[in-house]
Write a structure and sequence with these properties.
The chain is of the alpha/beta class. The chain contains 6 helices and 12 strands. The protein has a domain of about 150 residues: Vaccinia Virus protein VP39 (Rossmann fold, 3-Layer(aba) Sandwich), CATH 3.40.50. Helix content is about 20%, strand content about 35%. It has a 7-stranded mixed sheet, sandwiched between helices. A 5-stranded antiparallel sheet has the order 1-10-9-8-7, with no helix packed on it. The longest helix is centred in the middle third of the chain and has 14 residues. The radius of gyration is 17 Å and the shape is globular.
């Protein structure tokens, strides 16, 4: 288990505290639509931290080619239709490049700055000339609007998704407590009719300036925001020109 990370609940738990069965139940949000609108049709996407394929599968359905990377073999067992690679993201070096590199799930907010540097260097190392990096980051109130909860509708059964009661489930962000060096320990709870999972992890809030500095250190720069709330960003390599 990674330092400061913990997970509880039925089934396998990954090194960063994620429960495999929980992620197999979570519904697909707007991510595939955001991604599809930001990249060329049919692009080859390197998805870093793919989990069980919650976003992978909708991207495949939209005609993209996906290489899916995760450090958990248990997660990758749920992925169908994509090339899969089991590896810590920060140490990945495939010797090839991709039209699009995607770093979702707030991974850029790693509490360990060396891990964050490794993640962004992996993005820069694998993006092709003229390509882009899509990064998902936390919303402005992620660490201050706590405790909070939201109710989600039931998850339709599907391949690799597990099944869930149609009455839905509740997601609670219970706390975000400072643990030093600008890092918070975040505790989340997912309550289903038949099971409950918790996850505790360390997350580092980043100001706009800190985010841009982190990208620049890896040789990347912000091209544009993809969503009105700024949680999805398109970045490009600093030293390369984009294709017209």
């Amino acid at each position: 288990m990674r330092e400061g990370h913990q997970g509880t609940g039925p089934g396998a738990i990954t090194p960063d505290g994620c429960a495999v069965e929980l992620y197999a139940r979570l519904p697909v949000g707007s991510e595939p639509d955001v991604i599809a609108a930001a990249v060329p049709a049919g692009a080859h996407i390197l998805e870093l931290g793919c989990g069980v394929g919650r976003v992978t599968h909708p991207l495949l359905e939209r005609g993209f080619t996906v290489t899916a990377v995760d450090e958990s073999a248990d997660m990758l067992e749920r992925v169908r239709g994509a090339r899969t690679i089991c590896s810590p993201i920060e140490r990945l070096d495939m010797g090839e490049t991709f039209d699009v590199v995607m770093l979702a799930s707030f991974l850029v907010h790693s509490g360990d700055p060396e891990v964050r540097r490794g993640l962004l260097r992996t993005c820069a190392r694998h993006v092709a000339e003229g390509g882009c990096v899509l990064i998902q980051r936390e919303g402005a109130d992620y660490h201050v609007n706590v405790p909070r909860e939201r109710r989600e509708t039931g998850v339709p059964p599907g391949e690799g998704r597990g099944s869930a009661d149609p009455t839905g489930f509740t997601v609670r962000i219970l706390s975000a407590e400072p643990v030093g060096d600008g890092v918070n320990r975040v505790r989340a709870e997912y309550v289903f009719p038949d099971a409950t999972w918790t996850q505790t992890f360390r997350s580092r809030p980043l100001t706009e300036e800190q985010f841009e500095e982190a990208l620049a250190e890896a040789g990347l720069r912000v091209d544009r925001c993809l969503t009105e709330d700024g949680t999805w960003v398109r970045a490009v390599p600093e030293a390369r020109k984009e294709r017209p």
